[in-house]
Amino acid sequence: MDRNLIIFIDSLPFFVLEKNKNFFINSLSYKSKTTPGIGFSVNLYSEIFCGLQPDEVGFFNEWTLDEKITSKSNKLFFKMVDYFNYILLFSVVSHKAYSKIFKKEIANIPFCYTELFKKNTYDVFSYTNSHSFLSQHNFCNIVSSDYNEGVGNRDIIAYKKAKNEIKNKKNLFISFVDLDNIAHIYGLNSNQYINHLNNLDSWYQSLIEEFKSINKNKCNIFIISDHGMAKVSRGVKLNLEKYFGEIGHERYIYFIDSVFLRVWIKDSRLKSEISEYLTKLGIGVILDENYRKKYHITNKTFGDLIFQLNEGINFCPNYHGWRLPKAMHGYAPELESQKGVFIYESNDNKPSLLPSNTIEMHNFITNKIKKDNHIEGNYD
Description:
34% of the residues lie in helices and 18% in strands. By secondary structure, the chain is of the alpha/beta class. Strand 5, helix 6 and strand 6 form a beta-alpha-beta unit. It is globular.
């Protein structure tokens, strides 16, 4: 039985491989450019590791409207505090203090709106997630990083853990997460980003060569990423209340993601007015029904309107943070900048078809696992 090594890199763009022909991972046998699903990593992880798209998994992006809560957004105190959130340091400190006192993560959501939203959590890297192929049939040891560590250090920890785990001669999954954050903070052309790419490639080589040696080359190697990354050139500030009045369950509610605006509308008269306003801004597009069907985000609990920004534009501030990132993802999946990576090496014959998107990536890996472990049934 062949052993499997799966290396996952959050946000490794395919164009990085094309720009760095000397990377070790370019020497592996087969590689393909993959189109992500729509949205952020929380949904793309579900597609890659569970084969579940947003309509199936039941959420879209990290936060959603909490229909069970009646709005507490009219509290005068929170409105007064929100007035000072235009001061960056005040906003950061006050939101951290709120989360600590009330033991509730609120990101950068205005205080008077915090009760309106809840965070979606779906850990595909957990042995308890029965939908993830990582946990099925005791498939592999999972090595992931401690998110409490600083950016840059998390991948070093994962690499060191993986070096120890390889000696156990078991299937192994390793998650590297820092490249995504480094791109957001420093940009795609920064020394920090370039240095980390070089470090990652060196770590891949070390891990793969040792894994092959220990398993006498009877192994399958997968290197995968969820999406790419684009340079951010412009920030846009949005304030729907200025034009459509205060939000609330009886009229409309909106959530500002980094590159998405989602609007839940109770007053039907507002739908066409808000749609017209957003279209005239000329910075993005309202996703129509056909597009929502294509990417399986038809559920209206995801928003009656979903507005997606054009490449290179980012809402700033938004409900995730105040700072304008140097690079971002979540733009239209069809864009070249958003393409992820699938790399594969095996003793088998050349595969007839390599994955071209996240769902196909899931099916390719799980069917390979099924075949190598003589598991009955089909994961597709």
